[in-house]
Amino acid sequence: MSALDSLEQEIVECRRCPRLVQWREEVARVKRAAFADEVYWGRPLPGFGDPGARVCVLGLAPAANGGNRTGRIFTGDRSGDWLFAALWRAGFANQPESVSRDDGLRLADCFVTAAVRCAPPANRPTPAERDTCLPYAAREFELLPSVAAVVCLGGFAWDAALRVLGPAPRPRPKFTHGAEATLGRYTLIGCYHVSQQNTFTGRLTEPMLDAVFARAKEVANGG
């Protein structure tokens, strides 16, 4: 078993945050009507992708009826539809959809993970929950030695990356779409989150998302 596999097992078994444990398990028990016949995952989610990745995508947390249902980050919800379609267009994924853990999706030169590993109520982890969970991301980055570009989906992920990969430069880099910050060997790239709040309103468009991954590829290639 690889070190990443061992870390994945540790993450899946975590019960450190009582509020998150209660919520993720309640959602898995009650279920959304559209998924009433499915067996929900209802546990924390490890990262997913290529151990040799030069690009890492960092999100906020699993969706209650997305990753918390399917057992894979950004899988089975509209946010994932946008993300993996963009990764496919950029050449990082072998298919544009991510609907289940066994759907055949493979990532090349890319790893996808999150700052918080359990679905939080209202999609809002507390600062204490964030701080309890961030060591998992820190250990993932340690086990992903080739990562150069970190695409941060939203301000929460941007802040988490600054905490995990810091110390952050002064003045502290501010999040915005397309923002960049250098922390040692890493280049952080800000991107509006692929949530419906952004994609349905046009705040984030496919060309904007494609430009972010084109820039990440440039960074990965040393540009």
Summarize the structure.
This protein is of the alpha/beta class and 223 residues long. 38% of the residues lie in helices and 12% in strands. It has a single domain (3-220), classed as 3-Layer(aba) Sandwich (Uracil-DNA Glycosylase, subunit E), CATH 3.40.470.
List keywords for this structure.
alpha/beta; 223 residues; 6 strands; Uracil-DNA Glycosylase, subunit E
Topology:
Layout: H1 3-12, H2 18-30, E1 48-49, E2 55-59, H3 67-70, H4 78-89, E3 110-114, H5 127-142, E4 149-153, H6 155-165, E5 180-183, E6 186-191, H7 196-199, H8 206-220
Parallel strand pairs: 2-3, 2-4, 4-6
Antiparallel strand pairs: 1-3, 5-6
Helix pairs in contact: 4-8, 5-6
Could you state the CATH homologous superfamily?
A: Uracil-DNA glycosylase-like domain
- Using the coordinates shown, work out and report the CATH topology: Uracil-DNA Glycosylase, subunit E
- The biggest beta sheet, please? 6 strands, mixed
Instruction: List low-confidence stretches.
Output: none
Gyration radius, in Å: 16 Å
Distance between the termini: 34 Å
Number of domains: 1
Which architecture name does CATH use? 3-Layer(aba) Sandwich
The fraction of residues assigned to DSSP E strands is: 5-15%
Task: Name the average pLDDT.
Answer: 97
Overall structural class, as computed from helix and strand content, comes to: alpha/beta
Helical content, roughly? 25-40%
Net shape: globular
- Helix count from the secondary structure assignment: 8
The SSE string, one letter per element, is HHEEHHEHEHEEHH
Number of strands: 6
Oligomer: single chain
CATH class: Alpha Beta
Physical arrangement of strands within the biggest beta sheet? 1-3-2-4-6-5
